[in-house]
Amino acid sequence: MKNLKKTSEEEKAIEQEVGDMLFVLICFANSLHIDLGQAHDLVMNKFQTRDANRWTKIDKGDQTS
């Protein structure tokens, strides 16, 4: 499969769509009185415990830009 470089217009369109989804998700959570901070903490704890060995941790000193 050929890698296609996304144009700036495509990247902006995707960014806007993600923003739209985030807005709807926040509205939905608010309508159900869900604390998004608490929900985020719960899911991060789940990923850090259940999936701790699934991912390779990146040492911040090893990152290159």
Radius of gyration of CA atoms, rounded to a whole number: 17 Å
The oligomeric status of these chains comes to single chain
Enumerate how many helices there are, as a single number.
2
Can you tell me the overall shape? flat
The percentage helix is: 55-70%
Unreliable sequence segments: none
Main β-sheet description? none
The topology string of helices and strands comes to HH
Topology:
Layout: H1 8-31, H2 36-50
Index terms:
about 60 residues; 2 helices; mainly alpha; about 0% strand
What does this structure look like?
It contains two helices and no strands. By secondary structure, the chain is mainly alpha-helical. The protein has a domain at 10-51. The mean pLDDT is 86.
Describe this structure in a few short sentences.
The chain is mainly alpha-helical. The chain has helices spanning 8-31, 36-50. The protein is flat, with a radius of gyration of 17 Å.
